[in-house]
Amino acid sequence: TAQAKAMSKVMGFDNIPMSGADTITLPKGYSWKTLISWGEPLFSKGVPFDHKTRGTGESQELAFGDNNDGMSFFQMSDDHGVFVVNNEYVNRDIISPNGIETADDVRKGKAGHGVSVFEVKLVDGKWTLQVDAKLNRRITADSPMEITGPAAGDDLLKTAADASGTKSLGTWNNCGNGRTPWGTYLACEENFNGYFASTDENFDGGAQKKRYGVGNKDWGYNWFKFDERFDISKHPNEPNRAGYIVEIDPMDPTSTPKKRTALGRFKHENAEVVVAKDGRVVVYLGDDERGEFLYRYVSDGKFVEGDNANNDKLLNEGTLYVAKFGEANDELAGKGEWIELTHGKNGLTEEAGFKSQAEVLIFARMAGSVVGATTMDRPEWVAANPTKVEAYCALTNNKNRGKKPNAGGDETPVGGPNPRAGNLYGQIVRWTPADEDHAAATFDWDLYVLAGNPAVHQDIRKGSANVTPDNMFNSPDGIIFDKAGRLWIQTDGNYSSKENFAGQGNNQMLCGDPETGEIRRFMVGPVACEVTGAAWSEDGKTMFVGIQHPGEKGKPSHFPEGGDSVPRSSVIAITKDDGGVIGA
Ligand code: FEO
Ligand code: CA
Ligand code: CA
Ligand code: CA
């Protein structure tokens, strides 16, 4: 360990062992506390979480949602700030243990989704929720949204309730997030398809719905039984109004969230925003599905600090691109290019099925196929290094690599940044844009890490050289840089610790050094959780981390309260006992 410490200039803690315990495990000298858990009221007219009933529709509308994922902390002073946190989905068997049968069950489920906004203050050294603070807000699957950008008003977005095609209701399944330099929050709609169903079992949604996984059965949420807009046989355009990046102003609780169609419609993971050399805004975007693509958006205009009217246009006017990775120079490195998804270019014509730019954006996956984008092993979060012009994307896993495509998608040959058939463990690809410019047309890529299990396998499944029996993991998902350039890696993988995953323990968070490639395990989460989402106080001395779905699928967790409590997704706050910067 002394030698490892000397290798990394940015990491000052020791790698910790794997764990299967139902708690948070951290390196020596670190502590954690719960900041907020599912069901905790943000308003005094709410009620404390009821472990027996798990609340009602009304109580959930006033409380922190379920399954927190991406988040940002907008700090306003040394001791005051506002959190914006995605509530991706609900654990149906936990939130509604008697099944989702009644209108109130559905109301509660819809309110468990969306985004939670709440102020915090530093009280006796602990960041603490401020009930009833003026920025506190719940955005749910029923909140009014504005649809903006090139696809707004298109016929494909018009419904019985909205003849304008510009006003929809709700955002749901927000996975990762983004944060703009002008102070807004980006919530990213991922598995929006799982909420639509058809009361007409013979309804045929066609190739476009198929490619997006919109079918006649939902995933068990039963929203369509009480809210007809989720019935695709009656409202076939409704799914076209979901699958976007949603921009939210956390400083104005009366503002209407804006869906930004210019950034394309797919199963968005996160939105990593960087300002390019010339001031244009670049947003990197993953589409988390086996064999789907990695995207990049470049704004037409430039970011101007303090000019809200200018900055409000940056995510409406710009160009979307999709990544094509070139032939590998060697097994783990190569070149690539960004291909423009603009109507009339690169074969995106009426004959190819696209009448307009609106259709290119609404069916971005199909546009990506036309231009020959590279099928990826489930692109999850993208993270840009703040200390160097380079970016990373977690490719979480893909059991179908080399075997079968996504429904209606492209073949998925083994090669390039997706070098393993039936990929169980995942990898992180890194690219360096040409001319140190995130807006450049081309890039060089390599694999930062190929996850694996060197205790079980000796072939390519053992992983890259920076994976050892001591730090191994599977399924990297959330990846987020801190200010100092430490790459935090969160996992959403197999937590059985058996067979291919023997010795890997619960889902966890590791820290990577971009320069040396060294990876150390920093935190292990509780039973059956996923670790996802991170934010920091401005001084870097508190790190906030998301613990999602502890105890899912009936697994034995009572996180975070212990005893016989109901397991609850939570945001935790990690501090160093000596008051230092986390990870340093
Ligand atoms: Fe919600 Fe791709 O993770
Ligand atoms: Ca994820
Ligand atoms: Ca995942
Ligand atoms: Ca998740």
UniProtKB/TrEMBL annotation:
Q: Which PROSITE patterns match?
A: TAT (PS51318)
Q: Which domain of life is it from?
A: Bacteria
Residue ranges of the region described as Disordered: 399-419
> Which SUPFAM superfamilies does the record associate with it?
Calcium-dependent phosphotriesterase
An example of a Pfam family matching this protein is: PhoX
InterPro entries (alphabetical): 6-blade_b-propeller_TolB-like, PhoX, TAT_signal
Stated name of the protein:
Transcriptional initiation protein Tat
Native organism is Leucothrix pacifica
